[in-house]
Structure formats: C-alpha cells, structure tokens
Amino acid sequence: MRLDHQTPGRAPDGSAGDADYGRIGVDYTAYRRPEPRIAAAIRDALGPARKILNVGAGAGSYEPTDGDLVAVEPSAQMRAQRPAGLVEAIDATAEDLPFADDTFDGAMATFTVHQWHDLAAGLTEVRRVTRGPVAVLTCDPTLLSRYWLHEYAPEAIDTEARRYPPVDKIAAALGGGQSFAVPIPLDCTDGFGEAYYGRPERLLDPGARKANSAWSFVPPEVHARFTEHLTRDLADGTWDAEYGHLRTQEHFDGSLVLIVSPGEDLYERTATPQ
C-alpha cells in the first residue's frame, strides 16, 4: 500500500528539500554534466532493470537511455533544464511517490538524498515502488574532510557533513545493501565539489560554487574569504607546494559512494527458461 507522506514547506519553484533550486539552480547544467565513468557504475549497479525510476532527477544527469525511465523532480527550475531527448520529469517528491507497489525494476537517486525532507520516508517509498535494485549516489560525511577545501572553506565542508546522511542509515532504510567507493577522475565533467580536487582555479568561479548547494548555506563573507585565500595561495605557490601533486593524480578517493540495495533478484526473474 502506498504511504501517505506529504512534503511540507516547498519553495516557490517546488524545491522540496533544504536547498532552493529556484534560486541556485540557474545555469546548473553548465557546471553539472554527467561523468560517463560514474554513469557506467550506476548503470552496472542497476543490472538488467529496464523500467527505472530516477528520484530527485534534477536536470537528468546519469539517467540510462537504454530502458523505460520515469523521472521525479519537485523543482520547476531543474525540470526546465532537462535536455531535449530526456523524458519529462513528474512534479513529485520522494516522500510521496505517485506509483503502485513494485512498479519499477530498478531505481536510482544521485546527489539528492541529503536534501530530502524525510529521508526514511523517502527511501521507504522508493523501496515500496521498486522490486529490483536501488542505486544511491551520495557522499560519505565521514570522508569529506579528505578534500583540501576543508582547509580553505571549512564552513562549506562542515555544512555538507551535517547534511549528508550516514551510509549505513541509507542502506538500512532500503532494507539492506552495500556501499562502494567511487573514484573521482581528474577530468570529471560533473562539477560537484570534489570534482575540482586537481583544478582548484575552477572553484574561483562563483557559478561553480553556486552549482554546489552547500555554498548556498554559507554567508557571503565566507565566499569572499575563500576567494581571497585561494587566489593568494595559487599566486604565490602555496597551494601547489601542498597539493600540487593532485594536478596530475588520475583519481581522487574522496567521499563519493554508491549504495546498492539489491531487492528482488532480477537476473532470476528475467532469465530465459532452459
């Protein structure tokens, strides 16, 4: 039976979490484009699933194109930025999914669970409507301090650490699962915070910071202090003396994780009888 959870306090554009994408989502897709190697990991986690739900779908990053996909996204700003060729997203929230039990073979949620109003209710709903694997791309809050940004803008990293749910809490709410570390490539095309581990100059762009919701929770003086500090350290070589090796490091083992809850064994269900 469908749960009856209504999400309170939605922003004017429909954003249902703690971040207002009507305000910060402008030009989001200029900075947040799907990274193919991460997309491949998500698709692999979904196995043979063909009918797939994307919850908190945003502008459509990481949506598989080889199946029947349904996208759910509460923010009108983000729905409007979905590229041509992707399905139109439904205006709904994770906590109140308008689907019958076991509608989908698989489900996914990328960079979104930390913004849900009620994590447990949302994940319970996702599991209710999904009979197969659920793949959640998120960050492990205990590992965020690995990133050099913690030295330059601890407020932004500490904000993220408070927002991201513990990995075991996500897996438990889905009925069990495993987490896998996801290496971040040096030339990552998805501009989440750690994607710039070896390209610090990119974070001097206000648009790059705006495309990461944590920065919307820190005051303007933190932005100003960060910009001044990093600009100075890049100019005089301080950053490179400490972190310059990251400019050529092919991958960064940061906080990015993929949590996979298997659900029903789709391999058995879709196997051809002998």
Q: What would your notes on this structure say?
A:
Residues 1-6 and 267-274 have low confidence and may be disordered. The protein is built from twelve helices and eight strands. It has helices spanning 21-24, 28-31, 36-45, 76-80, 119-129, 149-152, 154-163, 167-173, 206-210, 220-236, 238-243, 266-270; strands at residues 51-55, 68-72, 106-110, 134-139, 178-181, 184-185, 251-252, 256-261. It has 274 residues and is of the alpha/beta class. It is elongated.
Tell me about the biggest sheet?
A: 6 strands, mixed
- What would you report as the Rg, rounded to the nearest angstrom? 19 Å
Mean pLDDT: 89
State the oligomer: single chain
Helix content: 25-40%
* Helix/strand order: HHHEEHEHEHHHEEHHHEEH
| Order of neighbouring strands in the sheet with most strands | 2-1-3-4-8-5
Residues in β-strands, percent: 5-15%
